[in-house]
Amino acid sequence: MLNNRKCHLCEESCIYPLTTTCGHTFCKECLLYRLSIYNRCPLQQCRTELPNIKYFYEHPSEQNDAMISEKRILEAEKRLLQEMPIYIGHLVFPKRTYTFNVTKQNHRSLIKSCLKSRYRKNFGMLLSKKCEYGTLMEIKQIESNNEGEIIFQATAMGRFKILSNGGIKDGYDIAKVQIIKDESDEEGGGGEEGKILINNNNNYYIKNVIIREPTNETTSQLINIARGFVNRNETLLHIRDLTSSLGEIPENAADFSFYMALLLPIKDEERYELLGKRSSNERMKLIVKWINNLRFQWGVL
């Protein structure tokens, strides 16, 4: 029975169990991750070659096992939110992939713990300990060099709010968190959370902008102000280099606000404010406020 099976890797009750030809049982996710690195039994004392890796990817679960596994996934997700591993030191925004070079011992312990646990790929990123909002990260690739440093890539999946500090576990910070999502834009947003609506007459918005905090503009109007600013200042070295490295301009209004924050030459402590905003319109208002401040500093329209 599934209830009696423990995964030899994460040492927890199995989720979607798979048993190798050498007789060892693992969570499907745990086993497939190890097989993506080498095609042998993950147990150090075994290391039997597993040539037919395709079998493990395609092997269906029994109906009863699947039902129990889904329940355990929900339980594991709840536990993760109760004790989220927290990596401190960077500001990251959703839907972007980052590369980190880990040298600190507490960060190494956190990554190793993530790799061992049921939800090995997930942890939270905070700019600093005093921050209330952070970003949920998912590890995509990982490697180590001869100096013992860990280098890994992780994608920012979403945002969270710290509900309470959980103290220190195995040398790294943990916290109880709540996942936050955008609410529908109210007045001023026009429900424009989908694709960006571009007004071809950008000059209208540029010429009529004054140095003030935006109030009643729609999300599309705010986006046009931002795009107009970039177009007029794309010769600046900072903006030219970043427009190349950040890739294509997002088509989604929610993603565009984070893209613009990375593009503007401002401090991370200012950019951090975006993480707590619950709509594209609110974030774009903040973006345009920053743009107006830069225009004033640079003496440009």
UniProtKB/TrEMBL annotation:
Keyword match Zinc: yes
InterPro entries: Lon_prtase_N, Lon_prtase_N_sf, PUA-like_sf, Znf_RING, Znf_RING/FYVE/PHD, Znf_RING_CS
Any GO BP: proteolysis
Gene3D superfamilies membership: 1.20.58.1480, LON domain-like (2.30.130.40), Zinc/RING finger domain, C3HC4 (zinc finger) (3.30.40.10)
Keywords: Hydrolase, Metal-binding, Protease, Zinc, Zinc-finger
Domain RING-type: 7-45
Domain of life (superkingdom): Eukaryota
SUPFAM superfamilies membership: PUA domain-like (SSF88697), RING/U-box (SSF57850)
Keyword field contains Protease: yes
MF term (GO), any: zinc ion binding
Pfam short name (any one): LON_substr_bdg
Name of the protein this chain belongs to: ATP-dependent protease La domain-containing protein
Species, as recorded: Glomus cerebriforme
